[in-house]
């Protein structure tokens, strides 16, 4: 059964930090690719960070040095540590997983998705 449940969103002031969590079913956690995406108001969903089964990570340029993606293998949980948050980070954040490529392009997103958790950053 595919299951992804996010938590940890909230409202913070610029410069603050949040840690998002995504608890996956064992079946979903076994997928090769997991990641975090976000959808700002009125914009398309975009990739934030991904991690594969070898724990190789990728980051969007806009979050490099501020966000860290990680996995807790003992608890089948994906994390996104977000530091030095800025108003432009305001978005709905989604956890995703895929046995093949994980991406969003031209309105289409591959893989399986959680319900999202809202992050709001005020200046």
What does this structure look like?
Strands 2, 4, 5, 6, 9, 12 and 13 form a seven-stranded mixed sheet that branches. This protein has a four-stranded antiparallel sheet with strand order 1-3-8-7. Strands 10-11 form a two-stranded antiparallel ribbon. By secondary structure, the protein is mainly beta. The protein is 3% helix and 52% strand. It is globular, with a radius of gyration of 13 Å.
Name the structural class: mainly beta
Largest sheet: 7 strands, mixed
Our Rg estimate from Cα atoms comes to: 13 Å
Helix content: under 10%
Query: Average pLDDT, to the nearest integer?
Result: 95
Count of helical regions? 1
List key phrases describing it.
single chain; 123 residues; mainly beta; 7-stranded mixed sheet; 4-stranded antiparallel sheet; 13 strands; globular
Provide a brief overview of the structure.
This protein has 123 residues and is mainly beta.
Strand-helix topology:
Layout (H helix, E strand, L loop, with lengths): L3 E4 L2 E4 L4 E7 L1 H4 L3 E7 L6 E7 L4 E3 L7 E6 L4 E6 L8 E8 L5 E2 L2 E2 L2 E2 L3 E6 L1
Parallel strand pairs: 2-13
Antiparallel strand pairs: 1-3, 3-8, 4-5, 4-9, 5-6, 7-8, 9-12, 9-13, 10-11
